[in-house]
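note to self — DONT lose this again. spent like an hour looking for the file last time. sequence + predicted structure for the chain T wanted, 187 res
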Amino acid sequence: MIVHMWRHPKPIAAEGFCIGQTDLSVDRRKLKRLANKIQRFVRLHRLPKVIWVSPLQRSLRVGQILAQRGFECRVSKELAEIDFGIWDGQAWAQIEKQEIDDWCDNFANFSPAKGESLQQLFDRVERWLHARVAESGYEHNHKFLLMVGHAGWINAAKMIAADQEVPKLANKWPRPVNYQSCSRLEF
């Protein structure tokens, strides 16, 4: 299965904040720009008009625009960004330094209160991808899957595709993919 994953457009007022599942809005022009990019890609490569999105509006609204243009939009809560729990939506500067140090020291398994760990995100991503492979019939039929997702989710998927383990240290986590960029993975 070949997966094309676009990162959502840059949300409004996210700078300096811990943003996971906080549901921030995005400028409508940026949403349309990404929808146009995906639509051109699908037309150029003659792919099925099916797009998977998370329920967070920075992803969902791109899918809704594409649905108005004849795409089938499938929403999956498993595609949501990592859940930072009580940190989510807070300014990074407001989060206790000791908590951030604890996270960096136990990067794979630490989770903020009411949130999820990086290991839990990896498990969620892997389950979702395996379910899509199973739906496609068998692993090597090169079915195409298109989605609009989030940086943490996309990074986890890329590491899973490369057969890498969950990073134990924060400095081993890759930089986020650019907004509106596309990553191609084969599973």
